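Task: sequence design from structure.
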């Protein structure tokens, strides 16, 4: 037993050392995502009446900006309110795309297919963000098409505050959402399905969510809060099963509110004093979903500063790292908070948060809310990411429970004038070649090398060796990168 324990500690020490070595420059694997909100035209498109050409130009500029800043994924809201940013047989075109719900873009195009194509051209991932329950964004102002489900099946919906919601307690609602997800993962080359924190709506003081009738019909003797949580559990399990059986490589992620439960409510909770929590108010038992393997990644929205009196960033970062159950943990960063108080006026706040999350073996990256915030380079943070923290590219971390087979090693043909031809002849599909540098006399291992360039290609690429950055006194290698970001053995270029 003593020898086994010693071996385990040694292995952990080696892993920690390897992460420190690899991250002394920049990690080769790190999720670097940005939320792109379409609801109320927060991020894209910037207005409801943009011409198709303007919509496309805006999205291309948005991608180019994030690529320059070192991002490797966009999380784009394609179903903001029971509507669609793509042609759907189940839900009408979104008013946030054309100004009127149900009205297709003119000239006609498929915005989702366009966005996925442009994103993948840049070697970035596209995560399709769906809101599971919001149906009408504002019951007084929103455009609602005759083909919207609130018109066809009004019995499926409940009004709470100024919004209309799909009723989470109805089996018909869960089946409809599953059909929407199945349609998406069947027709589109998505990297992930993504849902945010809006399950049951945030509580409105003095108003109870109006589902008593449905509780009496479907509750089956359960406590109402347990029943509500079971409704959310059911839809998450259903979507998990749909994704796995329909398109297994697609991942499924959730971005919950940053506090699962307070310690005052549950010994397992975080040392926080949040007014509302996932478990008790939104009825989203995120920990159960990770324990059961129903989701592949979690992105808790830690939009508070370090030292916050009620919800300290550092306290929550540590808590989520202790409760990620082997699934990928990316941290939701509140870049939109820039300038909102003394802490968020400090240019060191975001860099310190990145440094903190990188110190954990169980955190694999960040996602930023939201895209528009980067346009003004708040506190110089776009510069900080581009020039320092995300100076080198990174691959989204692979998920071994989805696919852990490495692609074939690339072949290299050196050409005149310092050019090199990279060729892939393996059976498994790849999306890019990764170019790495390695200091002299260092063991040839991916974790010890530095990824410096990503060349998007599926079979062949020609590169200029003189344009590879930071190669002085270093060896140069290339790897094949598959669709799940597994890498091949390293082939030396020079």
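Answer:
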């Amino acid at each position: 037993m003593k020898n086994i324990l010693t071996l385990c500690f040694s292995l952990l020490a080696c892993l920690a050392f390897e992460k420190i070595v690899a991250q002394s420059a920049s990690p080769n694997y790190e999720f670097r995502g940005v939320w792109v909100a379409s609801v109320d035209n927060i991020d894209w498109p910037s207005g409801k009446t943009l011409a198709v050409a303007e919509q496309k130009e805006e999205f291309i500029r948005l991608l180019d900006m994030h690529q320059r800043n070192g991002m490797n994924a966009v999380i784009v809201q394609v179903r903001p309110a029971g509507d669609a940013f793509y042609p759907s047989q189940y839900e009408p075109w979104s008013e946030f795309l054309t100004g009127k719900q149900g009205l297709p873009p003119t000239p006609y195009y498929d915005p989702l297919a366009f966005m996925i194509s442009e994103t993948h051209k840049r070697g970035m991932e596209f995560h399709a963000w769906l809101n599971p329950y919001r149906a009408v964004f504002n019951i007084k102002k929103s455009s609602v098409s005759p083909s919207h489900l609130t018109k066809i099946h009004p019995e499926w919906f409940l009004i709470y505050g100024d919004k209309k919601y799909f009723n989470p307690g109805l089996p018909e609602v869960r089946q409809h959402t599953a059909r929407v997800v199945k349609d998406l993962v069947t027709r589109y080359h998505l990297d992930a399905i993504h849902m945010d924190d809006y399950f049951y709506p945030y509580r409105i003081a003095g108003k109870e969510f109006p589902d008593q009738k449905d509780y009496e019909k479907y509750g089956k003797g359960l406590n109402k809060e347990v029943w509500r949580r079971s409704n959310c559990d059911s839809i998450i399990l259903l979507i998990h099963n749909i994704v796995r059986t329909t398109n297994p490589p697609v991942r499924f992620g959730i971005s919950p509110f940053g506090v699962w439960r307070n310690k005052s409510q549950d010994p397992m909770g975080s040392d926080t004093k949040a007014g509302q929590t996932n478990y008790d108010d939104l009825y989203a038992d995120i920990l159960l979903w990770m324990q059961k393997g129903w989701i592949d990644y979690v992105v808790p929205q830690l939009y508070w500063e370090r030292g916050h009196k009620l919800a300290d960033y550092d306290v929550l970062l540590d808590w989520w790292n202790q409760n990620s159950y082997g699934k990928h943990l990316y941290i939701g960063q509140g870049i939109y908070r820039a300038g909102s108080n003394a802490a968020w006026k400090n240019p060191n706040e975001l860099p310190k948060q990145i440094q903190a999350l990188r110190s954990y073996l169980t955190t694999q990256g960040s996602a930023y809310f939201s895209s528009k915030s980067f346009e003004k380079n708040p506190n110089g943070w776009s510069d900080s990411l581009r020039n320092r923290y995300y100076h080198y590219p990174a691959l989204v971390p692979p998920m071994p429970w989805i696919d852990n087979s490495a692609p074939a090693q690339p072949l290299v043909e050196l050409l005149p004038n310092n050019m090199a031809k990279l060729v892939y002849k393996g059976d498994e599909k790849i999306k890019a070649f990764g170019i790495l540098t390695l200091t002299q006399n260092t063991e040839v291992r991916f974790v010890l090398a530095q990824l410096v360039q990503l060349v998007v290609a599926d079979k062949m690429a020609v590169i200029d060796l003189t344009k590879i950055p930071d190669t002085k006194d270093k060896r140069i290698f290339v790897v094949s990168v598959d669709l799940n970001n597994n890498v091949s053995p390293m082939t030396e270029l020079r």
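DSSP finds 14 helices and 19 strands in the chain.
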